[in-house]
Write the structure tokens for this entry.
Amino acid sequence: MNRLLRPIRTAHRGSLRLAFLGAVLASFCVGVCPADAGAAGQNESDVALEGLAAVLPRLRGGGYVIYFRHGATDDAGRSDYEADLARCDTQRNLSAQGRAQAEQIGRAVHALGVPVGPVISSPFCRCKETASLAFGRFQIDSDLYFAFNVSPQERKRLADALRHLLATRTPAGVNAVIIAHSANLREAAGIWPKPEAVAYVFLPLGNGRFKAVAKVLPEEWQSVASAKR
């Protein structure tokens, strides 16, 4: 039995009815509200999300926003606490695995016939390199700055900016791509994207609202492309 619907012991019949009604409403929100990521409390569970094979026919028609976390990185000796955005050597950068992931994803996206329109990147080098290797182009949006180790006010501003991007309808016939960080998506949509190079597919609904519909693991692009041959 759903723990929200367990009998609530009370000596007052009216209190029992109110408690039961509150439990039913809470249960309804847990099951339904998370599908609308424009609402607070986006569900962190991936159970209800589709995989690439299921969402692919819709991606081919365009109209979605694909949010990539940058490819795998090499942490050795580098930190982003004092990163200089003009110097990649001061930042955490892609590893050889991360570069290979980006190239493989780009080839698979092309082979699968997924139309890509605007490619928007965080100003950090690991995101720009992921975008360049996968799609050959990108535009930098400073509002995709890594939302970690920043003030609460800045974190909220960055989250609001990302929510705007996820809710903005894409040009006809193409999908928008965003390449940024784990913390940004967590703040904006309540989703912690793991592992590196994972992608989440969002349907923009306009008016600040969007819906997460699929999660695509890094190797899934190539495996689905191979299966379609």
Q: What stands out?
A: Strands lie at 65-69, 73-74, 93-94, 116-121, 139-140, 175-180, 199-206, 209-216. The radius of gyration is 20 Å. The first helix runs from residue 13 to 32. Residues 3-35 form one domain.
